């Protein structure tokens, strides 16, 4: 078995309590084959980028690098979060392009490559993650790295016409052809990528998994829908009533049903649209008045970016507006919380909910949708209201699928979920649970790594 090298913007160090499912899966893969995890340390240095920190635990080496303030602003806050994130989520209107941050992005990728080239051996398998590092393979190849290089995009891949809105897009997206294997969340993302390669690089789709460049070089691209640790989360949820905050939430609800949303405060998550739909539900279903409480947990994210600050303000006003118009002295329809919780607590919250609201305008996968399913009580599971624009909708056929832009449709789905008999909920839940257990986070990483090992066969 080849040694594995994982590269991601942030490294999940072994002592961090915040490590989620992906970190656990990558850790397990690194432990199996022995390996190295490389990425930004999360530290912003006073002077230049480049100071390295090396540590190891349980057979895994961790190598992290500090970034200068300038690189952090340009590469991370700038090109990654202000340019690529909105572009990849189909929001050309929010794309903030400038040549300086683009150069910083390229510079940090080159810096990563400079250090990695000294570490990577020819027979290693290198797995690079997400939109921060699109051109890394190209930079590594320039430095003579011959190892197999794989890339997984955790976010959506938009249509070629949207990508074309980014000035000099070929420099960033054309660089994906330097990998041996490029992985996407869904078949649709894969098709849009194939379309981009055809249109803008004159490439050809040779067969379902293989693309040929104009110069004849071939590389692979495929869909690998990311999973979660479904059995682990289900067990956590089964024990979550031991957690005081879960018990307090339950007793605060009384006999009322709970609808829950859990999302980073991000414009891709469709939160104002969801609030609007919930208000529509209250307007259109006076018979349900006082019977449902909607808890929205939305930890603040990327507070340094103006569009995120504006969204936060909008939601605060909206929650106040809905409660002002609909609340009773003993019932608050919307509970709006900007905190993060340990995973065990979240699973308990999910399990208490009759309805899970997952209504992003665009999402690569949306892990919350899968976590909600895993956390349900098999005897009395809640119903999932899920956006057709989340990658998860391709797998979770037991959800009530909605268009998040259609507030009447979402309001109706909330009402349907609330009235759904337990037999129907069980049947829908069972088919979703089977899927997320069959192709869980470990099946996903094994599938990707097997494909990468054989990418050149
Ligand atoms: P994204 O990666 O865009 O944030 P996902 O739904 O794919 O969206 O993943 C979000 C992850 O963050 C999930 O694992 C979810 O449990 C976690 N998360 C979201 N909100 C919170 C919160 N308030 N506290 C703790 N974890 C959270």
Automatic annotation (TrEMBL):
Checking Gene3D superfamilies in the record gives: Glycogen Phosphorylase B (3.40.50.2000)
Q: What class of enzyme is it?
A: transferase
- Pfam families, alphabetically? Glyco_transf_20 (PF00982)
**Reactions the enzyme catalyzes:** D-glucose 6-phosphate + UDP-alpha-D-glucose = alpha,alpha-trehalose 6-phosphate + UDP + H(+)
| EC number from the UniProt entry | 2.4.1.15
Which biological pathway? Answer: Glycan biosynthesis; trehalose biosynthesis
Q: Name one GO biological process term.
A: trehalose biosynthetic process
Query: Which InterPro entries does its entry note?
Result: Glyco_trans_20, Trehalose_OtsA
Q: Does the keyword Glycosyltransferase apply?
A: yes
Spell out the molecular function terms from Gene Ontology.
Answer: alpha,alpha-trehalose-phosphate synthase (UDP-forming) activity
Keywords from UniProt, A to Z, are:
Glycosyltransferase, Transferase
Transport: is it a keyword of this entry?
Answer: no
Job description of the protein: Probably involved in the osmoprotection via the biosynthesis of trehalose. Catalyzes the transfer of glucose from UDP-alpha-D-glucose (UDP-Glc) to D-glucose 6-phosphate (Glc-6-P) to form trehalose-6-phosphate. Acts with retention of the anomeric configuration of the UDP-sugar donor.
Quaternary structure note: Homotetramer.
> Into which family does the record put it?
Belongs to the glycosyltransferase 20 family.
User: PANTHER family annotated for this entry?
Assistant: BCDNA.GH08860, TREHALOSE-6-PHOSPHATE SYNTHASE
From the Swiss-Prot or TrEMBL record, give the protein name: Trehalose-6-phosphate synthase
Q: Which gene encodes it?
A: otsA
């Amino acid at each position: 078995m080849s040694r594995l090298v994982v590269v991601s913007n942030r490294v999940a160090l072994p002592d961090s309590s915040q490590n989620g499912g992906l970190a656990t899966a990558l850790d397990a893969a690194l432990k199996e084959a022995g390996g190295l995890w490389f990425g930004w340390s999360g530290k912003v240095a006073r002077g230049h980028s480049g100071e390295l920190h090396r540590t190891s635990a349980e057979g895994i080496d961790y190598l992290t690098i500090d970034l200068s303030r300038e690189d952090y602003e340009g590469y991370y806050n700038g090109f990654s979060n202000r340019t690529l994130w909105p572009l990849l989520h189909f929001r050309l209107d929010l794309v903030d392009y400038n040549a300086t941050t683009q150069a910083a992005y390229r510079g940090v990728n080159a810096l990563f490559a400079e250090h990695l080239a000294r570490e990577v051996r020819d027979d290693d398998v290198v797995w690079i993650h997400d939109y921060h590092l699109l051109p890394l393979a190209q930079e590594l190849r320039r430095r003579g790295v011959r190892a197999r290089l794989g890339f997984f995009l955790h976010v959506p891949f938009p249509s070629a016409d949207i990508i074309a809105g980014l000035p000099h897009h070929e420099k960033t997206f054309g660089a994906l052809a330097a990998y041996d294997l490029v992985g996407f969340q869904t078949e649709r993302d894969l098709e849009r990528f194939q379309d981009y390669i055809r249109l803008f690089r004159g490439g050809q789709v040779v067969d379902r998994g293989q693309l040929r460049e104009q110069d004849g070089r071939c590389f692979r691209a495929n869909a690998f829908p990311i999973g979660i640790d479904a059995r682990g989360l289900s067990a956590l949820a089964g024990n979550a009533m031991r957690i005081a905050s879960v018990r307090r939430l339950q007793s605060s609800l009384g006999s009322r049903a709970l609808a829950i949303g859990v999302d980073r405060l991000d414009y891709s998550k469709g939160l104002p649209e969801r609030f609007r739909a919930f208000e529509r539900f209250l307007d259109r279903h006076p018979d349900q008045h006082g019977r449902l409480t909607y808890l929205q947990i939305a930890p603040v994210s990327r507070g340094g970016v103006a569009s995120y600050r504006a969204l936060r303000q909008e939601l605060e006003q909206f929650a106040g507006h809905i409660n002002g118009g609909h609340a009773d002295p003993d019932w608050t329809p919307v509970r709006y919380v900007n905190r993060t919780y340990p995973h065990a607590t979240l699973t308990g919250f999910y399990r208490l909910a009759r309805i899970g609201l997952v209504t992003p305008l665009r999402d690569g996968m949306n892990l919350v949708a899968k976590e909600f399913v895993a956390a349900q009580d098999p005897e009395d599971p809640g119903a999932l209201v899920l956006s057709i624009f989340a990658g998860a909708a391709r797998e979770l056929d037991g959800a009530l699928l909605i268009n998040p832009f259609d507030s009447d449709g979402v309001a109706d789905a909330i009402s349907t979920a609330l009235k759904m008999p337990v037999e129907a909920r069980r049947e829908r839940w069972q088919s979703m649970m089977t899927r997320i257990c069959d192709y869980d986070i470990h099946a996903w990483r094994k599938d990707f790594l097997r494909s990468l090992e054989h990418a050149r066969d």
